[in-house]
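User: I'm writing a short report section on ligand binding and want a predicted complex to refer to. Could you take this sequence and S-adenosylmethionine and write out the structure as tokens? A short remark afterwards would be nice.
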Amino acid sequence: MAETALPLARKAADVLAARGVENARLEAELLLAWVLGIGRLQLYLQHDRPVSEAELERFRAAVRRRLRREPVQYIVGTAHFRQLELRVDRRVLIPRPETEELVGAVLDWARRAAGAGERRLVALDIGTGSGAIALSLAREGPFRRVVATDVSPAALELARENAAALGLDEAVELRTGSLWDAVSPGERFDVIVSNPPYVAEADRATLAPEVVEWEPAGALFGGPDGYEAIEPLVRGAPSHLAPGGLLALEVGAEQATRVVERIHETGAYEGARVMRDLAGRERIVLAVARGPVEG
Ligand code: SAM
Ligand code: GLN
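Assistant: Sure. The structure tokens for the complex follow:
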């Protein structure tokens, strides 16, 4: 008898769950819907839709990939981030929900800073990966220009594909280079945002296999203690922020206190604010550069 959609997804979910995959049911449904070329909810509406032999083969292949702990987003080749559907593959980190919150915090600030209407701000996203942050700012925010950098040329290729697919290639300028190398001396931005690699090498063993075995190491690890990118970002940003401009960083769950200390040490910021993510962890640090000098 031919397999039908929903029971097939259920069977696959049992296999995934038995092998320790979290959210097995959701993921089995996502994979089958992708193979069938329909939305996940359509699976329920078409629950007894017959699945052809060819579709079954492709679904089995997808489930085998998931059993090797490859993330669902790499298997289907896309990830959702705020309003965007982004192409993702092993060249880039899969964008995370907490980074959507980082973008939300930047947008709140930028809308207040820009006032009504005008797209007048310029933003810099350091370590753009898939382009998630930069492309969202360009799509949603009051920016006339967004510069996005990455040290990985491979990641930038994918960011370029995403920008083009979203029609944002004019709005977002991509540059290769490590940290401040991609920025000219004296070049200034209203907003500098980064989700840098911040996992400590020492914490490698705590990462899920989906992360440590599949995502690019250069997107994850920030040196022995995790601060190798964050600290130069904090020290360097004042030279590249407009007076009163915003530095917005995603940091690891235990890192906010030290990052705020570093911010104070520079003497170049008015202060720092820490925001919690939806899970209640301190994951976002915001700091505003001193100035403008009042006459
Ligand atoms: N911005 C994307 C996001 O939030 O989903 C990707 C963030 S991922 C955690 C960090 C990114 O920074 C990776 O794409 C990595 O290649 C890049 N990166 C790592 N070291 C860097 C450096 N020194 N300078 C610039 N980019 C760097
Ligand atoms: N959020 C990723 C994780 O917890 C790390 C990403 C990063 O280092 N910026 O695995």
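A remark for your report: Residues 5-68 form one domain. Residues 97-114 form the longest helix (18 residues).
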